[in-house]
UniProtKB/TrEMBL annotation:
Keywords: Oxidoreductase. The keyword Transit peptide does not apply. This is Pyruvate flavodoxin/ferredoxin oxidoreductase pyrimidine binding domain-containing protein. It comes from the Bacteria. It comes from Thiolapillus brandeum. Transmembrane segments: none annotated.
Length: 84
């Protein structure tokens, strides 16, 4: 048998391996790519609204160097209108 070492490649943006749930993964991507979020706290997306509000409170800026905006509507129908 012939065992060879895999070619070692270096990546410009290697990132970090992390274990997380889907809601956290979405927010970690969206906080960098989006300017605003509208979220109504309803299972299973409650965490996503909480995480977004938390990032906004920390004054996180996205890759466009813009501050995040968060809108929490008062009802499910208002949430549909805000995010449409």
């Amino acid at each position: 048998m012939n065992f060879r070492k895999k070619n070692e490649r270096t990546f410009k943006y290697p990132g970090k391996r992390m274990a997380m749930d889907g809601n956290t993964a979405v927010i970690m991507c969206e906080r960098e790519a989006s300017d605003a979020a509208g979220a109504y706290p309803i299972t299973p997306s409650t965490q996503m609204g909480e995480y977004w509000a938390e990032e906004m409170a920390k004054r996180h800026v996205n890759i466009s160097d813009r501050a995040l905006v968060f809108i929490e509507p008062e009802s499910e129908h208002a949430a549909a209108a805000v995010t449409a």
